[in-house]
């Protein structure tokens, strides 16, 4: 809990001595969002604890079970009585140090129900509920108590008994190691078990179910209770022996969140997940955080994916001093702050992803003089980005972790890309279980101590912890650009990028790595394709939010290219963001205002279908005039036949202008609105 | 194989003595469709047998493995040499005794490759390939031979290495007992394991993979080889011990079929599956088949689903003499040839689907005088439709099966609805394994001997066997109308009916049971909805093909309703059918010509989105004039708020007319074109 100086108390704390007589009758507690559109009901019945959610007078979640199953004990959630009830309203703006939206309003009503069992064990459980105008959060707290000290959560009983069998976009959990799939669309009743966020679109509202503030707990997946139901039940990612969470009182669960909005597009303008995370610890705020800087980066990376280079040492080695300097030279001439060098260290020989890890985290590979490269970069005002690929060997990595960050700190490296390539962590742990959650927290903490920003791939899904840990910048956790270039040649479909902002993107920044300009890499990857046009690639810099945004193609593919000036201009830190229009899997238009100038940027993308869109520019300052620098698909552009066809057009616009965008198949439009 | 009198031989039989030297070099065989658009290549290499498919100059299936794994033996498909090669072309029209299309052209080129192992075991395998203009079929034959007599197929090695990662509509296999799901749409690379038909839509073509002539074999499911591949591999539904097929030489597998068309809509105009089934046995053709009659039927059925009546005996018992007579009276006044009475026999008490079956198949339940009912029906020119619900107890059922059909034959009942409700057949068998395939064949055979038409629910997926067994009329194998009324309230989404004709519908007739007129059954099912308008319900009689088409609502909901005249008029047996336009999950327009009149009928349906469609009537006889009797959504129709709003309009049209259809959300248009 944060300091309460800004709390507006409107409820009063009731200290009720629970009596059995009281407990065995049903009682109901209510909470509504500040705008009253969301109504939350809690029912305390002898057979359990239940909640339900209405939105705009319509049932959204029917009566749904809450509770925890403690290993070796009765379910915690039945035969409960109220000890104490506490309501409050909170309404404050807060500032993101960096982000897609500088000022965020955090406005909720909260209900705390401190409960005690009426049975002999008298275990205590607190349920905390918050209702925002854009959704709800609920969490369990287990206070310190005699009959519950160290314990194992065998199952979390939380259910989401959805009121409608609506269209659902989801990723299958447990099918392989993680969420690097293209999304499935089905009826809710055809879902099996899914990662969160899971996005549902009914006729009168859209929902996204996810979690916030995942700390020392297992990630949540959602399993359909049984066929032909509409009830999703929390299925925590287990330890190898089936334990879900190993913990001790006092503890609190992550928030279970339901974002609610009239349409799917509105979910993108919700900051519920961030609002349900804690502000940074005070000591973090007083520390020197000047190393934390959003920015664009390039890297020795795509050339491995398209088969021109290799991560391994040898004749095709990508990580060389000379090649790194080429990237640094290009970055220095452009607004690109960092250069990543994958394969920079020892241990990448051969099929490194198939064996126990052999990486040395403080010894550069032969052929790369990292000291010279960092010196060269520093002289040119470019930062080198470190890389800790663990090959999913967490124990092995942690033995070197602090020394590895030390090594980077000494070299002046303040940004690291993490990697956890492998089917299981340490051989038998899921990537999303408590083991990995706790490991990754140690990474973030150690990195902060060494003044390092973290960009993690193949890690736990984001739950908004960047609010608390501002060095936790971005992560992958998506089927990214690499699938378009890499082997096997099962690239993403053109609609993939029109789905992920509505789903994965709701969890937080996404290191999707856009920016491919050269669509002809057939020498080594004859059957692969980036399924978009060049203008679509530009638009992704606005559509997909990440504070560290890769400029993914090779410098020689950008050199002298007129369209590159959009990438040069586009910021990675924003004053405000607006998802303007879109439908999941169809198209999306997003506008964002630069944090350091009055300029706005707009990105519009479509799926495999070309389409015309009318966009009102009413987000612009009504008193100002702008030059719109428009990067759009050429008349004959088409992701398949002519992806590199684009044109640049300049025109004067105001907030009263309506632009007509003409997106070609797999196409897009990227616009810089430069204020006069 | 059928008699060869009509074969056009253009290849010549080559009797090659296989030699090791020949075998260990690669050899290639080719086959093209009559129009040359489809090219099939077979590669015989030391490491195996492979095929690939091109369509219109584009790879559709890359080199893909063929073969069988015999239990306790080496894979059969490697180290093979050619013994004999045989090519032919076949081009004949044939007539369906009933169906969606009276005359079907069967035109293919065939390649038979008789192969022998070059290893000591010298097992023989014949591969038969047929290329039609609308797709391909391939099957394995194992001729009688010394080293392979009785054997178990442990795995079928057939792969479909698809060339593109395209959008795929699929149903998960093995998740519960069968295919009663709403379809999932995903990238091919996100498929897990799917029932067939599986429908794929790439930019330049659409595909459906399925099988034809499934006899004494296991149903095929398709499993993605591993994550991020585009290769589906056959995964035969197993026996409880893991065996896939228990068989003996000589034997032949079902055909593995790939329908190929420019667009998904064109798949609906393909008869590949039927063309890969055998003509009826001569003795079947000379038998009296006059009992086989397509037609509409009503039944004591929907009132159970909406909770007004019950299958069980007692106060809510649906199956009573009086109620049956009400249905018969209504049917007799209309063009409805049959009346089904579910719960007609003994054994339906309580939760019959949860216990071992207790049905008695020749004793009516107390309260239903079946002899009186059949007499009453016969006097009125209506047929009673029998019902054999087995509760998935096949062994129990087969002990009574012949007697049960005898009983019906004596009563003059010539149509039976079969049911296999239960999670496993006989406790441990999948609904789609060889055990059930063989059982169901015995049902069809026994029914034919007793002059009974079969309509089966919860059975093996259709593979076109109705061509060979003309008493095998229709089946469910779909998430039908019952899900909209039944409990739990996870009804179908409005787009469901716009998906199933492109997927499930490709396998054969679908007993979806349309025709709901009363959308207010909230007394017992307050949360359920039929997600369509009334005009959409009418259109389903044309859009979804079934020779036995249910008129699913209660007679009192039809009585005096002006829109019922469309159901009265619409035929169930057609001279020809044309899928005119549509997109999977979006909309569909189908026209069919009555077999017994020059009239045409048209059905158009949409998903949750209203839309306007222009339909050219160029399928009509250009020399004729027609009255179009149009049943369309009312101006304010909407599946959710006003489903019963419709209007009837009459206008004169010719083949030159273009109609503009205005479909409301969840809506449709049904038209009878009555020739002047």
From TrEMBL, chains A, B:
Which part of the chain is the Glycosyl-hydrolase 97 N-terminal domain?
31-278
| Alphabetically ordered keywords of this record | Signal
> Where is the Glycosyl-hydrolase 97 catalytic domain positioned along the sequence?
301-478
Write the protein's name.
Answer: Alpha-glucosidase
Q: Which InterPro entries match?
A: Aldolase_TIM (IPR013785), GH (IPR017853), GH-type_carb-bd (IPR014718), GH97_C (IPR029483), GH97_catalytic (IPR019563), GH97_N (IPR029486), Glycosyl_hydrolase_97 (IPR052720)
Which region is the signal sequence?
1-23
What domain of life is recorded for the organism?
Answer: Bacteria
- Keyword Signal annotated: yes
Please verify whether the record's keywords include Signal: yes
Upper taxonomic classification of the species? Bacteria, Pseudomonadati, Pseudomonadota, Gammaproteobacteria, Cellvibrionales
Domain Glycosyl-hydrolase 97 C-terminal oligomerisation stretches: 573-674
From the UniProt record, which GO molecular function terms apply? carbohydrate binding
């Amino acid at each position: 809990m944060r300091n309460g100086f800004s709390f507006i108390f409107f409820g009063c704390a009731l200290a009720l001595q629970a009596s059995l007589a009281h407990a065995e009758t049903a009682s109901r507690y209510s909470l509504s969002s500040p705008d009253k559109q969301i109504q939350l009901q809690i029912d305390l019945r002898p057979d359990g604890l239940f909640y339900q959610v209405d939105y705009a007078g319509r049932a959204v979640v029917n009566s749904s079970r809450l509770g925890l199953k403690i290993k070796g004990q009765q379910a915690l959630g039945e035969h409960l009585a109220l000890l104490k009830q506490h309501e409050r309203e909170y309404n404050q703006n807060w500032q993101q140090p960096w982000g897609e939206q500088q000022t965020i309003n955090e406005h909720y009503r909260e209900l705390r129900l401190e409960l005690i069992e009426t049975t002999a064990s008298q275990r205590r459980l607190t349920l905390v509920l918050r209702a925002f105008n854009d959704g709800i959060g609920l969490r369990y707290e287990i206070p310190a108590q005699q009959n519950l000290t160290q314990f194992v959560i065998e199952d979390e009983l939380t259910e989401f008994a959805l009121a409608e069998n609506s269209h659902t976009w989801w990723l299958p959990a447990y099918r392989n190691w993680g969420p690097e799939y293209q999304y499935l669309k089905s009826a809710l009743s055809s879902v099996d078990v899914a990662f969160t966020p899971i996005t549902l679109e009914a006729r009168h509202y859209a929902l996204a179910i996810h979690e916030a503030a995942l700390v020392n707990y297992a990630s949540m997946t959602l399993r359909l209770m049984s066929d032909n139901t509409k009830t999703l039940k929390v299925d925590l990612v287990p330890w190898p022996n089936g334990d879900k969470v190993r913990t001790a009182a006092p503890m609190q669960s992550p928030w279970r969140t339901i974002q609610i909005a009239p349409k799917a597009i509105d979910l993108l303008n919700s900051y519920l997940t961030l609002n349900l995370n804690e502000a940074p610890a005070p000591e973090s705020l007083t520390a020197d955080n000047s190393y934390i800087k959003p920015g664009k980066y390039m890297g020795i990376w795509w050339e491995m994916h398209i088969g021109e280079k290799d991560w391994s040492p040898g004749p095709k080695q990508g990580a060389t001093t000379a090649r790194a300097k080429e990237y640094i030279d290009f970055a220095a001439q452009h607004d690109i702050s960092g250069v990543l060098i994958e394969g920079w260290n020892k241990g990448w020989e051969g099929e490194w992803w198939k064996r126990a890890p052999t990486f040395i985290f403080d010894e550069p590979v032969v052929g790369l003089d990292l000291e010279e490269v960092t010196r060269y970069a520093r002289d040119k005002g470019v930062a080198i980005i470190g890389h800790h690929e663990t090959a999913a060997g967490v124990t092995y990595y942690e033995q070197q972790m602090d020394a590895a960050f030390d090594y980077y700190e000494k070299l002046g490296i303040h940004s690291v890309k993490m990697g956890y390539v492998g089917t299981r962590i340490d051989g038998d742990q899921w990537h999303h279980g408590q083991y990995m959650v706790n490991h990754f927290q140690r990474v973030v903490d150690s990195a902060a101590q060494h003044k390092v920003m973290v960009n993690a791939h193949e890690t736990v899904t984001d739950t908004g912890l960047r609010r608390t840990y501002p060095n936790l910048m971005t992560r992958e956790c998506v089927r990214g650009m690499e699938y378009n270039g890499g082997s096997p040649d099962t690239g993403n479909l053109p609609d993939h990028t029109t789905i992920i902002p509505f789903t994965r993107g709701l969890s937080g920044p996404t290191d999707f790595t856009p920016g491919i300009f050269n669509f002809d890499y057939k020498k080594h990857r004859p059957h692969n394709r980036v399924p978009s046009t060049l203008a679509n690639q530009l638009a992704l810099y606005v559509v997909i939010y990440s504070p560290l945004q890769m400029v993914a193609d090779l410098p020689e593919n950008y050199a002298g290219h007129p369209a590159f000036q959009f990438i040069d201009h586009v910021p990675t830190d924003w004053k405000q963001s607006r998802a303007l229009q879109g439908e999941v899997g169809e198209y999306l238009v997003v506008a964002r205002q630069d944090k350091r100038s009055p300029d706005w940027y707009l990105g519009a993308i479509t799926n495999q279908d070309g389409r015309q869109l009318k966009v009102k520019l009413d987000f612009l300052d009504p008193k100002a005039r702008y030059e719109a620098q428009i990067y759009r698909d050429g008349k004959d552009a088409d992701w398949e036949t002519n992806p590199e066809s684009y044109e640049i057009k300049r025109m004067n616009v105001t907030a009263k202008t309506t632009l007509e965008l003409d997106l070609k198949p797999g196409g897009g439009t990227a616009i810089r609105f430069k204020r006069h």
